[in-house]
Each structure stands twice: as C-alpha cells, then as structure tokens.
Design brief:
The complex is a heterodimer of chains A (116) and B (459). Chain A has 116 residues and is mainly alpha-helical. Helices cover 66% and strands 0% of the residues of chain A. Chain A has one domain (3-109): Methane Monooxygenase Hydroxylase, Chain G, domain 1, CATH 1.20.58. Classes of the chains: A mainly alpha (116), B mainly alpha (459).
Chain lengths: 116, 459
C-alpha cells in the first residue's frame, strides 16, 4: 500500500484549500462599503426583505421542465445511432418516452400543472 | 433482468394507481409484483446472465441475495400497510418509494460496472431520504430526513470521487477493464487507484453504518417512522453488505493486501465500539441502531474471510439478522402504537397480556445475541469459523468477546418482559398483516437455526 502517497494526497488537499482561503484573505486590498453586503438586484436599491418565500409551483414547473430537458439530451445521441441500430433503438426510446409520459401524467393528475 | 423490470413496473403501477385516485390497491399490486419477481428470480438460478455489456451480472450470488431482499421488502411492506393509516397523505407515493428502493438494491447486488453500483446506491439513498421524512408533520421525522440527506449526500460525493479516481487510474468503469489493468500492473496499484479504492470504501461503509462512519445511524433510526427504520435496519444493510462483498471478494480479490487491513480494523471497531455504545442506551430504537452497527461489523467479517465458506456465511448471517431485526421492530411498532414511547420500560410486564408479541421479541433478541437454536447462533458460528479458516484468529477472539458483552443489552428487554410488574401492560390487538410478518420471521428464524444447510448449501 502506498500510504505515503495517501498521506501526501490529504496534505495536498488540506494545504490547497486552506492555502487558497488564507491567501485570498491576506492578499486583496480591502475596502468596506455597506452597499457591498446588500443583495444584488439589477443595481437598484432593494425594496423590503429578500428572504421571501417563493411559491412552490416555481420549483415544480422547473423540475417538470428539467425532465424534458434531460429527455432531449438523450434524444440527440439516439438520433445519431438510430439508423445503425434499427428497430430495437426505436422500441427502446419509445419505452423511455412512455416512462417519462407516465411521470407527466402523474404530475398532471396530482394537479401540479395548475397554477395556484 | 425481468426481475428488476417487474419490480420497477410494480413501483410505477402503485404510483399511477395513487395518482388516478384508486387507493387501497397498493398492497395487492406490491405483493403480486414481489411474488412474481421472487418466482422469476429463481428461474435465473445457475444461468449466470451477463446483461447490457456486463453492466449487470446476474449470478447465483445475486439470485439468492435478491431473493432475500424481495422477502424482507415484502415483510416490511406488510408492516407498512398495517401501520400507515389510510387517511395519511401520499400513502401510495411512500409505497412506491419502498418498491423503488427495493429495485435499486437489486442493482447493488448484481452490478458488473462501477456506474451501475453508483446508480443503485444513489437511487436507494434518494428513496430513503424521502422515506425518512415521510411523516411530514412530525419534527423528528424531518430532522432525521435532513440529517440523513446532508451526511448521505456527502458520502455519495466521496464515493463518486473514489470512482472517478479508479477510472482515472484504470481507464475503465467496467470490472473486466479494471481487472485487466490490475493484471497488467502485476497487482501493484498506483497511488491514484489506492486512494480511489479507499474513498469508494468510505462511501460504501457509510451506507451500511460501520464505525467510524456510523454517527448518522442512531439519530436517523430514532427520528424516522418506525416502519422505515425497519427497512433501513434490515434490507438496506443487507444490500450494502452484498455490494461490498461483491466489490471485494469478486473484483478486487487480487489486491487483497491493499484493503484487508482497513476492512479488518473497521470490522473490529464496528462490533466492539457499537456493543459498548449500545450498553447505556435507554431507548429501544437507539439500542437496535447500535446493534445494527455491531452486526455490520460481523457482516464485514465475511468480506475479509474470502474463502469457500464466506459467501454462505454471509448469506446465513444476513438472513438471520434481517429476520430478527424485522421481528423486533414489528413488536416495537405495535408497542409504540399503543404507548407512544420507545423507552425500554414500555416492555415491562408485557409478557402477561401479549404472549405472542413477548415471545416474538424474545426470539428476535436471542437470535440477534446468537443463542441456539435460533439462526443467529448458526450464523455467528459459520461466520467465525469462516474467518478463522482464513487466519484472522485475533478478530474472531474480539468478535466472541463483543458478542458476549452484547448479551447484556439483548437480555435487558427480555428481563423486563418477563417481570411480574403488570401495572402498565395493555392488551394489544394485532392486525393480520402483523401476525403474518411475525409468524414468517419466527418460523424462518427457527428453521434456519436448525437446518442452516438450507441456506448455506446454496452458495
């Protein structure tokens, strides 16, 4: 067992991370301005609290959108090799669509698509 | 392959039944699916299938462990059906997640590729994070889910880093590629490979809650709904150990000198430290959590033994441990339902009014402690002799000492049950599902204790 290299690995990990933190706190020129610690909102001064609760519907829509995004990612390589693989590829992608469609049906039936 | 597909379809069917407002079918769909999978599983006996370019290797080891996972999942499912009230929200989703976790555990026993191992572990973990928090309005359940998620995802990251390093060193995710890399270097691994192997091991050991990666286990076990704790304590642990065994005994056997010391120390630490930590516990769930950690240590012994007895010893130990755990938790679930508490004192005087429950708990505790004629004894005996055969005598000595100490806390509930104090014992009415679970677990515990050859002859 190359335990020296193991120890070296952890030392390097600690030194790199710790060194970066220490270095970045020592080197830069520091200036303080209260505006710096405010959340950035298009340059306009912020109005009210920024710790708002968002409607959970945003997340649901984002996740449903992501599902079909990922589907597209799989579709492109499939389309490239579709001709060489033939019918089997077609059937497999249809099974994949079916599972994704069931997921959408599930979300639909659970009223995830209604904006409340 | 049909087995994994059928169980996945079962999960989808349960979820869709719930979405289409057809509640109440989940138990029957799940039982039908699991039974079909169980039967089909044994049709694959001795076929040694290699599927999807060796992504999945369905050999006899996978067949028996998948059978074990299916049976214990089915038992947990019966328990779930009896104890999640029908007016609870998202019942079908919880049921579907249980089945999906079962699917991913089958990948963990039959992987032939590091990516499949990762997918299996990750799918299982995600299901478990949600299941741990499935009682949305109870604070402990939320706490358990958050703790499990934060620590578990960190461990997953560590494991993924390990896989990446192994890939970087060997140029392959596939075990054929990794094996040919190892033979080409004459089993002298580069430091990159060793570090990757270490990180992968850390991730896996976290999932089975072996010391020193066990800190999450008592808190998560205590906070989660008890039915889910049953699942985590029994099925998940078996799947994790099966994955570890397959990784080391099948694929990394040639480089045993590199990992043997680590696994030996972790195994000894697990059973010894957990036994000592379990002694002062006042709550039964935490006690079972620590007992689970110590059993993880005993199960790791099989990984170390790596001779012709190791696989069958692991199978017998996993089976007897999961049966005893399910029986003990079933009794606990019933008691919690009435008393809303899991302090050990709730068992006081239980033997007078609830003879069957008391008997079940006594058998479960004795089996876990390793007392004949229950299967825990034969399992420990086989495990110790397999490890001794490979020359780890010191480990066996420590193991025997640890299991002697463990008697103290296994016998504590038994003395409380048999005590004469009947002031706080109430008659608990058992549902038919619970009776089935208890009868099956107790019968199998006794059968495997008297005829261990039924299991050990398989592998």
């Amino acid at each position: 067992m190359s335990s020296e290299s193991l120890i070296l690995f952890f030392i390097v990990a600690v030194v790199l991370v710790g060194g970066a933190l220490i270095f970045s706190s020592l080197v830069p020129a520091k200036s303080f301005n209260p505006a710096k610690s405010e959340p950035y909102e298009c340059g306009i001064p912020t109005q009210g609290k920024t710790w708002l609760q968002f409607n959970v519907g945003y997340y649901l829509f984002a996740i449903l959108f992501l599902v079909f995004d990922v589907e597209t990612v799989f579709l492109f390589p499939w389309a490239v090799i579709m001709k060489t693989v033939g019918m089997a590829a077609f059937i497999e992608i249809m099974i994949f669509f079916l599972i994704l469609g069931l997921g959408l049906l599930y979300a639909w039936k659970k009223h995830a698509l209604i904006w409340e | 392959m049909e087995v994994i597909i059928i169980i996945a379809l079962t999960g989808i069917a349960i979820m869709m039944a719930g979405a289409l407002n057809k509640p109440g079918f989940s138990l029957w769909i799940a039982i039908a699916g699991l039974m079909l999978a169980f039967i089909l599983n044994f049709r694959l006996w001795n076929t040694n299938l290699h599927l999807f370019n060796d992504m999945i290797v369905y050999d006899n080891f996978a067949v028996v462990f998948n059978a074990l996972i299916i049976v214990s999942s089915a038992l947990v499912f019966l328990l779930f059906h009896s104890h999640y009230s029908p007016w609870e929200k998202h019942l079908d989703e919880i049921a579907a997640l249980l089945i999906f976790a079962c699917t991913s555990m089958m990948l963990m026993t039959s992987y032939g590729n590091l990516v499949v191992l990762f997918i299996g572990i990750e799918t299982m973990s995600i299901c478990l994070y949600v299941l741990a928090g499935s009682r949305k309005y109870e604070l402990p359940s939320n706490e358990a889910a958050l703790k499990y998620f934060l620590l578990g995802s960190f461990a997953t990251g560590v494991m993924l880093f390990g896989i990446a390093l192994i890939y970087g060193a060997s140029g392959s995710f596939d075990f054929h590629g990794i094996t040919s890399y190892l033979t080409s270097t004459g089993n002298q691994t580069s430091s990159m490979f060793s570090i990757g192997l270490l990180l992968l091991t850390v991730g896996l050991l976290f999932k089975i809650a072996a010391v020193p990666f066990h800190f999450w286990a008592p808190d998560v076990y205590e906070g989660s709904p008890t039915v889910i704790t049953t699942f985590m304590g029994s099925t998940v642990k078996i799947a994790g150990v099966a994955a570890l065994y397959r990784l080391y005994a099948y694929h990394f056997a040639a480089i045993k000198p590199i990992w043997a010391t680590t696994i030996m120390i972790v195994s000894a630490l697990s059973f010894f430290a957990a036994v000592l930590m379990a002694l002062p516990q006042k709550r039964f769930k935490r006690l079972l959590a620590y007992s689970g950690i110590s059993h993880a240590g005993f199960l790791l012994m099989a990984v170390l033994a790596m001779n012709q007895y190791a696989a069958s010893a692991l199978l017998l130990y996993a089976a007897s441990y999961s049966l005893a755990t399910i029986a003990a938790f079933t009794v606990l679930v019933e008691v919690i339902e009435v008393r809303w508490d899991d302090e050990l004192s709730v068992f006081k005087g239980m033997g007078a009014k609830n003879k069957f429950l008391a008997f079940a708990l006594i058998v479960a505790m004795l089996s876990m402690a390793g007392i004949p004629p229950f299967s825990g004894f034969m399992a420990k005996f086989m495990m110790f002799s397999a490890v001794a055969e490979s020359g780890y005598i010191v480990l066996v000595v420590f193991g025997v000492i640890a299991s002697a100490i463990s008697l103290v806390y296994y016998l504590k509930p038994i003395t409380l049950i048999l005590s004469k104090d009947e002031s706080n014992s109430t008659n608990i009415k058992l549902s038919w599902e619970v009776i089935i679970v208890l009868v099956v677990t107790l019968t199998l515990t006794l059968i495997f204790g008297i005829f261990p050859g039924l299991l050990t002859g398989l592998l």
